[in-house]
Each structure stands twice: as structure tokens, then as C-alpha cells.
Write a structure and sequence with these properties.
This protein is α/β, with parallel strands linked by helices. The protein has three domains: 133 residues, 2-Layer Sandwich (GMP Synthetase, Chain A, domain 3); 133 residues, Beta-Lactamase (2-Layer Sandwich); 195 residues, Rossmann fold (3-Layer(aba) Sandwich), CATH 3.40.50. It contains 22 helices and 18 strands. A seven-stranded mixed sheet has the order 12-11-13-14-10-15-18, with helices on both faces. Helix 14 links the parallel strand 13 and strand 14. The longest helix is centred in the first third of the chain and has 14 residues. It is globular and about 75 Å long. The chain starts with a helix and ends in a 5-residue tail after the last helix.
Length: 561
């Protein structure tokens, strides 16, 4: 860290972000979690990364830049080679006349500044940027995976008299796939055998992209290499197999969850990439508004009750729960989880992997957890009546219980418990807050442009009263979209952010639940009491230029009139 811990403490206390006691708690949390004080402050939702960076820049008497919010010219960033950019945490992001602008996380690096000045013959202007921001911007060095793969094969062929199928650099190919997926921030790697070729696809921001085609005669050998790494049977080709790989990269050690299934043309592999470095585990960074954050914080500070996160698969429910667990994680509390699977390790939290083969189900695991003297329990998902009943009883008996459900919005979660044979008065007594969410793709900052949309066109998809509420009375509204560039795979989007609705179970809503009112009545009451719906939250994010109306409509499933 560029500032000493004492100087950091001085800045945080001077900005009235924490008092002395709270600072000591942060220091203890950072030590127990084996993370930096900077990461601890961000993960505890004390201060957003951007605000924190601005405070440090002010202390260093340097201008501050948020790289994620600017477009970096394609002829500027190559001034710093990728290897140096990654190692030194620096990016060239602009040029004005004879001045090169450098975003640095350690502005004390005079040698690097002199190197750039000598290389370009220009003066260097240094800006401070947060380490997270620089790390997340390194994708501008994107290389074509197909070209890298072809070069890897051609290098071997040129040095050998044997054919590709005899001497393919399989280990290097597999490493290349995994490293590239990590750098591209892909959540999954799909390797599929087709009739003539094999196809590799990356899931980036929830969308699959074709990234590589290779000869079918390499497919089986690549699958075998992955099986060896994942400690799976290499002689089994007709049954599904699951395994794990631990891979060491320059930036961090990453975990890869491997699933192999037999298909008509061979075997298909899907690898889930679980990388924790700078993962957005702060509710503010996930996109939760200040008002919603306040409601969740109130529920978190209670010693008992339930906090529920709802939404379809892939909507970021578990990520939100992890963000809450990070905040609650202190040495004075016993936090135990039962998950399927355990995606990310949280130091200081007892995490149990559900295993139906050994009868370690959510329900049985939850029973065992209750005998472990827990303060806080996280149940990965409430799937059945038994788990629901035990979770509600745990919340009634002095435990804070966090869990997820698959429901469309916050209000429909409450009747869902009735379907699971939980009495309404028990639900009303235990549930503190329900967070419903979706993930939307963020507009790519590299190709972001302003666009105009006429109200009559928008009213075909969104009720006019909601349009007026969020966009005012103008006949034309100004929003943004990405025009498409190589950085965003010509999609116009890069990265994701959450849209939320947070239903705080008030006294009036408890009464409605006990009276067995349906979800529409509960939802209307929650809106009357100030709940922001997912659609409203999404439209506000379009106004801020974070995402597009098309994305909001896609995830909130509003049909055309």
C-alpha cells in the first residue's frame, strides 16, 4: 500500500467515515481475512472504491482518474506493454499534445515514468488510480485467442517433423484457455465436440461467445489433460464426471470447477472459473442504492430473523449474500454455511459442502449446524418444505438466517413459504428483509455514446406513468448505449451490475402476511411504503448511463403492449 496504516487511519477518521473503535474492528477484520486494509474498507461497505481512491489521490496531491468511466484511445494504451502494466499496475490512458497521461497505483515509481518519457519523447502526467480499477481495465490488452492458439501450434510444427496430432502442446493449450478466460473475466468455459471441429466458448457477462475453433483430432487429448488436472478417470467416456482444478496465475490462485458429460460427438466440458481477486463483494459496488443499502443494513444488525435473496439462476443472489457475510464476519460471531457448491472461501466462516450421496442435504446439514452454537447461518438455497421449516424455526430461536430462493420478485417470496407448508404467522415473525435482483450488462465505456429515444416508442414497452416518473415530461429522453468495439466483443457491453428491489417487512406487511394476502397486495403496500421496484431501479441506472433500456427490459421480462 502506498500509504502507511497510520496515514490511512488518519485519512479515514478525518473524513468521518469511521470512529476509533470501528477502525480497530476493520483492522481486526483485515487481519483475520488476510486481506489489505483497503480491501477490508471496501468489502465492509465503509467506502466505495472510487471514493477511497479520490481520498488517497488528494492526500498524494495528485489528480484522480476512474479508468472504468473513460474511453482509452487504441493508440495510447500499447505505450505500456501488457506485462509491465500488469506487474507495475499502470496504464497509459490519454495523450494531449506532448503529454502522456499515466494512471498509476504507485506514483513513486520514477523509473517507469522516465522509461515512458524516453520511449515516447513526451512529458508524463501522473494520475492516481485504484488497484481494482487498473486491474479491471487490463482487458484493453485483449488478444485474439484464435491467433494465439494457431501461433502456439505453428511454433511446435516448425520445430518438429511430426504432425500436430502426434505432438500437440496440449498442456500449454489448456493453460492458455484457462488464463485467457480469467483475463477476459469469463465465468465459464465451454469445450464442445462437433462433427468436424471442436468449439470453445466463454460466458462473459452472462452471454456465451465463440472464441476458438480447433481440429477435432485434438479434442480428446485436451479433454484427457483436463481430466488429469481435475483428478478424474481418463478411461471413462460414457458417464458424467465432476472435479476441481487449482491453478496458479501471476495475479492469484484460481479454482476451476469441472463438469464433463458424454454427448453425441464425444464429451463436453464446462469449467466454472472461480476467481476472487477484486471480486465485487461490496453491496455498493454491486449497484445497490443508498436507500436499499440502509434497509439491508438494518436487517443485518438484528441478531435474529431471516434475510432472503431471490431471483433466477445467475442473478447474483449468492454474491449478494457473500457481501453481507463479509460485513457480518467478526471474531465475536460464529458463522456457519451449508452450500451446494461452496463457490468462494471466506476466511473465518465455517463452510459446509452439501453432499446428497452421504445424506448431507440442506435440511440435515442445517440440523447439524444448529448444534454448532451458531450466531449466523447461511443456507445456500431453500428448496423444500423440510429446509424451509428448519430455517424458519432457526430464525425464531435467536439465529440470523440468510438464504436464497427462486422467485420472480420480492413479494412472491412470501406466499412461496405457504406453498412449503410454513404457517404465515411464522413467516411474518421471522423474515426481516427480502432482496430481489437481476444482473444487467453495463455499457462499455470504450464505445459509449449518447442516444435519443422518443417517449411514444418507449411507451410500447413500459407503462407511461413509469416513464414520466423516471424520465420526466419531455417527449424525448437522452440515454446511452455502446456502439461496439473489440474490447466488448462488439456487443456494446462490458461488465455487469445489479438491479434490486428491497422489501423491508414492516408492521403493516407482517399483518398482510398473517392475513394470507396474495403477493400483489403485499407488493402494492411495499411500494406505498417506499420500495423501489427492480424496473424503477433499472430505469434510474439507464439515466446514469450505466446500462441500456434494452437490458432492463430483457431481465425484468416486460412484454410489449
Amino acid at each position: 500500500m502506498i500509504l502507511t496504516d497510520n496515514k490511512l487511519k488518519e485519512i479515514i477518521l478525518a473524513a468521518h467515515l469511521l470512529d476509533e473503535k470501528s477502525w480497530n474492528n476493520i483492522v481486526e477484520f483485515a487481519k483475520n481475512s488476510d486481506i489489505s486494509l483497503t480491501d477490508a474498507l471496501i468489502e465492509k461497505d465503509i467506502v466505495p472504491d472510487e471514493t477511497f481512491g479520490a481520498l488517497i489521490a488528494k492526500e498524494l496531491n495528485l489528480p484522480f482518474v476512474t479508468l472504468s468511466k473513460i474511453s482509452i484511445p487504441e493508440d495510447v494504451f500499447p505505450i505500456i506493454p501488457e506485462r509491465i502494466a500488469r506487474k507495475q499496475k499502470v496504464i497509459a490512458f490519454g495523450k494531449e499534445g506532448n503529454i502522456i497521461k499515466l494512471a498509476m497505483n504507485d506514483p513513486r515509481n520514477q523509473e517507469l515514468q522516465q522509461m515512458v518519457a524516453k520511449k515516447t519523447g513526451c512529458q508524463v502526467a501522473v494520475y492516481f488510480a485504484s488497484e481494482r480499477d487498473i486491474f479491471n481495465t487490463l482487458h484493453i490488452y485483449k488478444k485474439d485467442l484464435q491467433k494465439r492458439f494457431d501461433n502456439l501450434l505453428s511454433d511446435v510444427i516448425s520445430k518438429s517433423s511430426v504432425t500436430v496430432s502426434d505432438d500437440a502442446p496440449i498442456a500449454k493449450i489448456v493453460d492458455l484457455l484457462m488464463e485467457t478466460a480469467y483475463q477476459e473475466k469469463a465465468s465459464d468455459i465451454h469445450i464442445e465436440s462437433e462433427e468436424k471441429n471442436s468449439l470453445v466458448r466463454f460466458r462473459i457477462d452472462g452471454i456465451l461467445h465463440d472464441v476458438l475453433i480447433f481440429p477435432n483430432n485434438l479434442h480428446e487429448r485436451i479433454i484427457t489433460r483436463i481430466k488429469i488436472l481435475a483428478k478424474l478417470r481418463t478411461d471413462e467416456h460414457l458417464a458424467p464426471q465432476d472435479g476441481k482444478i487449482r491453478m496458479k496465475l501471476d495475479e492469484e490462485n484460481i479454482d476451476l470447477r469441472v463438469s464433463i458429460v458424454p454427448i453425441v460427438d464425444g464429451e463436453k466440458v464446462v469449467i466454472r472459473v472461480l476467481a476472487s481477486r477484486f471480486r465485487e463483494l461490496s453491496l455498493q459496488n454491486l449497484g445497490m442504492s443508498g436507500e436499499d443499502l440502509k434497509k439491508v443494513s438494518e436487517a443485518m444488525n438484528k441478531s435474529y430473523g431471516m434475510i432472503l435473496s431471490t431471483g433466477p439462476t445467475g442473478s447474483g443472489k449468492t454474491t449478494s449474500i457473500y457481501a453481507i457475510l463479509k460485513i457480518l464476519n467478526t471474531r465475536g460471531k460464529n458463522i456457519t454455511t451449508i452450500e451446494d457448491p461452496v463457490e468462494y472461501r471466506i476466511k473465518g466462516v465455517n463452510q459446509i459442502q452439501a453432499n446428497p450421496k452421504t445424506n448431507l442435504t440442506f435440511a440435515n446439514g442445517l440440523r447439524s449446524i444448529l448444534r454448532q452454537d451458531p450466531n449466523i447461518i447461511f443456507v445456500g438455497e431453500i428448496r423444500d418444505n423440510e429446509t424451509a421449516g428448519i430455517a424458519v424455526n432457526a430464525a425464531l430461536t435467536g439465529h440470523l438466517v440468510l438464504s436464497t430462493l427462486h422467485t420472480n420478485d420480492a413479494a412472491t417470496t412470501l406466499p412461496r413459504f405457504s406453498d412449503m407448508k410454513v404457517e404465515p404467522f411464522l413467516v411474518a415473525s421471522t423474515v426481516n428483509v427480502i432482496v430481489a435482483q437481476r444482473l444487467v450488462r453495463k455499457i462499455c465505456e470504450m464505445c459509449k455514446a449518447q442516444v435519443s429515444i422518443r417517449i411514444e416508442e418507449l411507451s410500447r414497452h413500459i407503462p407511461i406513468e413509469l416513464i414520466r416518473k423516471n424520465f420526466g415530461q419531455d417527449q424525448e429522453i437522452k440515454t446511452f448505449k455502446g456502439s461496439g468495439c473489440k474490447i466488448c466483443h462488439f456487443t456494446g457491453y462490458s461488465g455487469r451490475i445489479g438491479v434490486f428491489e428491497v422489501l423491508l417487512v414492516s408492521k403493516e406487511i407482517r399483518k398482510l402476511i398473517t392475513e394470507k394476502n396474495d403477493s400483489d397486495v403485499i407488493r402494492d403496500k411495499a411500494v406505498e411504503e417506499g420500495m423501489t421496484t427492480m424496473l424503477d431501479d433499472g430505469l434510474q441506472k439507464t439515466l446514469k448511463g450505466l446500462t441500456t433500456i434494452e437490458e432492463i427490459l430483457r431481465v425484468t421480462r416486460i412484454e410489449s403492449a
